[in-house]
Amino acid sequence: MKAKRRTGQRARTSLILGTCILLVLCLAYVLSSGEGAESLSDRLDVVMMVIAVLALVSPFFILLRTAGATAAEDEADLARRLGQAVARAEPLTRSHMGGDRVPVRVSFTFRPSPHARSATRPLVPNGTLDGLVADYWAVRPRRLVITGQPGAGKSVLARAFVAEFNESRAEEEPVPVLLPLGDWGRQELFRDWVVRHLVRDYGCTRAHAAQLMDSGLVLPVLDGLDELDEPGVLLPESRAQQVLDALTGYQSGLEPAPVVLTCRTDLYDALEASGRPMLDAARVEIDPMEAQEAVRFLAMRQDAIRREGQWRPVLDELRAHPQGVLARSLSTPWRLVAMATAYEQVNDPGELLGARTEQDATDRVFARFIPASVRAVDEEPRYSPERVHAWLHQLALQLESRGGGANTLVLPELARSPGALRARVLYAVTVGFLALVTLRVFLPDASQGSLGWGSVLLVVGITVTALLLLRPGGIRLLPHAAMGLPPWRSPLWAVAAKAAVTAHSRRGVLMLSVLPTLVLWRALAPEWLGGISDWTMALAILPTLMLYAVLVAGQALDAAVMGPSGWLRGGALVALVLLCPAGVIVGLSLRAGLGLDTVLPPLVLLGLLYCALSGDTVMYLCWLLVHFRRVPFRLSRFLDWCHVAGLIRITGGVYQFRHREFQEWLARHPIPLTRPTAPARDPATARTP
After folding, report:
1. CATH C-level class of 85-286
2. What are phi and psi of 496, to 5 degrees?
3. β-pair partners for 261
4. N or C: which end of the chain has fewer CB within 10 A?
């Protein structure tokens, strides 16, 4: 193993050195004193030459990054870094537990298994949220299924498990990772799916993620088995059954690999009755929340103490009728928390006493939930409740249009959703237009020699690479994990700068600094040392070098620290890195009195190269243009604000609505304060629960 690692390191070092030598030779040839870059047209050729070489070399770096040679790191160190990323990405905030000092009490009970292949259970289980990790350690093999009614707190229990397990994890123990099951495809292996999420959500390289999986250092905590299928799907043909079959065969050597799964009670009962549940697992059932717990939770909140007169009728109704309409509508932690938030400070909770059905009470709560959440963020909120409702309605429709219980909102994938054909067409038209303009410039030169044909082939290659991004599995010259950046004013930038010059990444930083150093040397050095002593040129390219340094520093951080919108900031920075030389070209051309025919070719080529380097960003912008006025143009900023307001939750690198029930309600109600309507799903016609 060590010999393979040394071989991989030598291969990586040789490729990096060869690339740098190639760049040095190219620059030495085109920038040599005498005939190299004395005229403006030659300087423009230099810029295009450097861009062309970088475009040719970039795929080799990407292939090298995903090769097995990069996996030659200590597994304990990889697990430690993944654990840090998970801890930052999955904090157990107050909003998950009720938004007040007094949380909702969640308890559970171990249920006996109807089949012989079940895990051993603890003799004296704790049965509480705080004791879940201790109960899990007593399970052999370590496979656990968490079941409960809709809104019972399965996701909260899973999130609490991840946070507490990760906090007490020893070096040799696996890292718990919360993964939403919504995007697991039927043809994708479970291992490959987990690896994809580790790369997308937590910034791991594909080789490192595969190494952690193969070493058994990842504990998948799978949330949302009940959200995979639409009602009416036969159980043997359902995606949920496929997941259970895959997990039954998920092994660590000869033993069942550890895994935690959440599912709705009625669906898992049906899967167990069908004879194909997940084997070698213990099952816990979240206890129903009784009316006295709802009374205790509501009575202890600050608003109930301050406005005792308005809350007393509600509490009296819950005490007097523990099985009434109001008690049944508040029978889950999620609904109870939503109700407490909706009637905080200003709204009168007594209006719920007039609800005749559970659906009526739920509609009244959700109608108040968004305005109350918006008001809780700021006294003068950035967005009005009406606009927030309308925008979230559009996003809910986007998820519902995908079918299959989609509940994850990944911004780079919006343009690839089934209803985003116009956005993809707009992107293809943009790339085609840039390619045609560029080819029209280079085709007349192709007949004069091989250099012209080489330029044409380069343009065609960049165009094909940009168009391949239309496919979900298209080749990316810059993966999302390599482009993610923290917020511009974040203190994480100091951490990134320090991490970029540590012993672990110092060699890579030095290698990446060769090209900027040579370009800056050429601009500042005297002529007898191969430079041109042009301080104007040096000042012009200095912003590009600074942005380049910021991009290198940002890659030293984990993607989970940057959040789901970190890739978008990285794409914006790549655009600035290419925009600065474009500005230099325009400035020099105007100063020299040259026309549009001289300025246009490098500008168009830069735009085409940006589509190849950051096509996901361009497609995302196309999607925003197509959905203009339906969603805010700064959508990531809006979703981050919704996360603070408690309307959206962040799981790894994706956004999710606070609850699936809330998502479905928004999809049915385009206008705030809409009167109750019929449910979207009719249980009488469903074959799967």
Report:
1. alpha beta
2. -65, -45
3. 145, 222
4. N
